[in-house]
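Wed. Picked up where I left off yesterday with HIT domain-containing protein. The coffee machine is broken again, so keeping this brief.
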Amino acid sequence: MQRLWVPHRMVYVADHRQPDHSDCPFCEAPKRSDEDALIVARGKTAYVLLNLFPYNNGHMLVCPYRHVSLYDDATDEEVAEIAALTQTAMRVAREVMGCQGFNIGMNQGAIAGAGVASHLHQHIVPRWSSDANFFPIIAKTKALPQLLGDVRASLAAAWPHP
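Structure written out below (tokens, as returned):
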């Protein structure tokens, strides 16, 4: 097989424009249902959702509700909740998905690779020893074994509720 048909990614690949406050997907997501927006958990100042274009199965994003672009523009309360939600996301992903490690990070600004540079978001990418197989290396393609809605449901169900 030389090609893997993934037409759903065309929306992401074809749009080279950075969204601003008027069409920010991270401002719009909390206005929708958790299922529709792929939201895993909601906090007071920030929330967790699945990445619509994941690098790996269970790829989550932690975003403040407030439209702020840089980490150093976030309030102390937002920074603390982003950190706490990140820790909980890691624990839940290990419990539900059995992942063995994580890539965690933020791309600050379009020049640094942020797909949505205008709204701060932290990536939490679960990793397994077996996720670096031949397929992404040879075929330049990542196979995701679960549907996003199913992943969201399993993570949300395991999320601790105070």
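Quick read: The beta strands are 39-42, 46-50, 60-64, 101-105, 122-127.
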